[in-house]
Amino acid sequence: MTSPAVKRQRTENTTTRSEIWYDDGSVVLQAENTQFRVHWSILGQKSSFFRGMQSLPQPPHDQPTVDGCAVVELHDTVLDVEYLLKALYDSMFLLQKALPLPAVAALIRLGRKYEFRDFFDAAVERLCFENPTTLKKYDALRVDREYRPTRILPYPGVVYDILTLAREQNILSVLPCAYYRALITHDRAQLFDGVPRGDGTVASLASMDQRQCTLGRETIMKTQFMPGYTYAWVRKWPFKADDCANPSKCARIRAEIQEHYMITFNLRGLLDLSTEQIPFCGQCTKHARESNQAGRNRMWEELPRMFSLADWGELKNEL
Ligand SMILES: [Zn+2]
Questions:
Q1: Which InterPro entries match (predicted)?
Q2: For residue 272, how far is its CA from the centre of ligand 1 (angstroms)?
């Protein structure tokens, strides 16, 4: 049996110094076995938690110190603390257009835990930008009909990882769009198998998210063809035949579209006809586009409900 004293000694021996080590620093933060020497004053500028901690009475003399600095043990990962300190000491870090998702995740987790309000808000803002609460903003993020994240560095599976982060951290306003993106970006097998990130690891969804996606998909599939929704114009032609320049041709095309979707069974709750080529006559094209736009507006309004979430106005992102 190793005695506690020997065990402590071993632990001390295995600590390593991070590159974030300021010789004039006044406090040493330790995460796992890595130590960071930083400044109380700089921590306190951004964090009400550390500001309050600094003003506490000095710890007893037998508390561990390194180079005369108090050691504050953090129960966080080294990577999270590194990203936090990068944001704190490198003024350009948060100004980058796209950040790695692990950095965004670290700033949300530690920003909330240690009350770095600005960092928390800036990181949540990136998730919200990628997963907006309005259809107009959602549409603006598509380039050539495709979505690619621009405020978070893209990689295979990033959509799953964003969803997991938002759900774990209660970034609620992000969830409707994040669930929808998870459904349209990857196929049904990937929902359960995950998506290889390309570095030997796999982006997987938790079982509760797999469930939410599966049930949400079913609800949207049923809803998208109902009157007043995205695909109503395919199922039931709401227009007068005498509006149409070529009724037999337009009816045939509509039947082909119906058949196509019966076979492919694709989820397209927010399909945007304004960017699709439809070979209807001019009047029918106009009617179909209007019906589609009204339908997708309604689908967007109800998107949270499709995933059993509260309405848009109630989905808050609090520190
Ligand atoms: Zn027509």
A1: BTB/POZ_dom (IPR000210), SKP1/BTB/POZ_sf (IPR011333)
A2: 19
Give backbone dihedrals phi and psi of 57, rounded to 5 degrees, phi first: -55, 150
- Asked which of 76, 94, 125 is the last residue of a domain, the reply is 125
Domain containing 110 — which CATH number? 3.30.710.10
Instruction: Report the C-alpha gap between 31 and 198 in whole angstroms.
Output: 28
The domain total for the chain is: 2
8 Å CB contact between 35 and 71:
yes
- For the record, the structure tokens of 231 come out as 């695909």
Q: Tell me whether residue 193 is in a domain.
A: no
- Tens-digit pLDDT profile for the chain (319 aa)? 344 443 444 445 689 999 999 999 999 999 999 999 999 999 999 999 999 887 776 666 667 889 889 999 999 999 999 999 999 999 999 999 999 999 999 999 999 999 999 999 999 999 999 999 999 999 999 887 789 999 999 999 999 999 999 999 999 999 999 999 999 999 999 999 999 999 999 999 999 999 999 999 999 999 999 999 999 888 766 566 678 898 889 989 989 988 988 888 889 899 999 888 889 999 989 989 999 999 999 999 999 999 999 999 999 888 7
72 found inside a domain? yes
Distance 284 CA to ligand 1 centre (A): 4
C-beta separation of 181 from 163 below 8 A: yes
Distance 172 CA to ligand 1 centre (A): 43
What is the token pair recorded at 245? 């320049």
